[in-house]
Every structure is written in structure tokens, then in C-alpha cells.
Amino acid sequence: MEFRKMRRSRQQLSKTECDAILSVATSGTLALLGDNGYPYAVPISYVYADGRLYFHSAQTGHKVDAIIQHDKASFCVIAADEVHPSEFTTYFRSVIAFGTIQIIESESERMYAASLLGARYNPGDDAGLQKELEKGLSHMLILRLDIEHLTGKEAIELVRKR
């Protein structure tokens, strides 16, 4: 599949810069095709590892129904959003990942991804994480977005400052 090229390519972030943003940020917006063909975008925590995005979810709901019906998704992270009123602009940096999303069935991959998520949001508490995983992993879904296309962009004002 061919993805659209960025119109303002001068503002495009490198793959390395996109990876860095995804590695540091803690939340983004997952966009899916929802009920009745309406877009469904939901803010969600994630972890980025091995070139993939991992999320956790309740076992049922709009997000899960959308994923089951249509496996294409995008995920957007905003790394900078600095309003400059006198310039009538915003200095922004953002990344969008496009790919396919699925519910992970493999118990070993579920544990791997859940451990990554737990360590990301509660670092240094291995005993607490293990206890939580033993208690809660069976009650949650683990989702994986396999990235097919990754693009990042920053405000032209940030490009000029480089």
C-alpha cells in the first residue's frame, strides 16, 4: 500500500525523531472506524517497543467493536503544542502512525506487552507489577498496532530555528 506523501516535506521529521517522540510520550489518540462509519478517536496510554505500539483495553466496548470490524487504525502523538498568539500560530511537533491493529491472543505476547506497559507507567516496582499482572491480566485485552507508515511533522518556525 502506498501512503500519501507529506505536502510540506521540509517540515517532516526523520524516522529517528519520530521514534524518539513515540518513546518518550505517554499518551496519544487512537483513531478507528467506529459505529455507522463514523470515525472513533480515543485518547489512550501506550508503549512503543520493537517498532510497534501496545495498548491495554477493557474486554468490551466501542474501541473493541471497532477493531473487530475493521483492523486499520492510526495513532497520533503531540509532542509539542506551544501557542504563540502574537504570531497567530502554534509551534508543534507531532507523529502519526498508520497500520493494522489487533487483539493479541498469544499469552506470552500478552504478558510481554502488559509487562512493558506496567514498567512504563510504574517503573521500579517489579513486585507490584507482577502482582497486578497476576490479578488483572485475565480481565484485560492487549492490543498491538503494527506500524505500516510513520510520519512526523513540526512547525516551520521550529525548522527555521535549527
Summarize the structure.
Helix content is 31%, strand content 40%.
What attributes characterize this protein structure?
single chain, 162 residues, alpha+beta, 7-stranded antiparallel β-sheet, 7 strands
Number of helices: 5
What is the residue-mean pLDDT, rounded to a whole number?
A: 90
What is the succession of H and E elements?
HEEEEHEEHHEH
**pLDDT below 50 for ≥5 consecutive residues: which ranges?**
none
Whole-number radius of gyration?
A: 17 Å
Overall shape: it is: globular
Q: Count all strands and give the number.
A: 7
Quaternary status: single chain
Largest sheet: spatial strand order: 2-1-5-6-7-4-3
The major β-sheet equals: 7 strands, antiparallel
For the termini, the CA-CA separation is 33 Å
Indicate the structural class: alpha+beta
Helical content band: 25-40%
Query: Strand share of the residues?
Result: 35-45%
What this model shows, in words?
There is one protein chain. The chain is globular. Helix 3 crosses helix 4 (126-136). 31% of the residues lie in helices and 40% in strands. It is built from 5 helices and 7 strands; from the N terminus they run H-E-E-E-E-H-E-E-H-H-E-H. With 162 residues, it is α+β, with helices and mostly antiparallel strands.
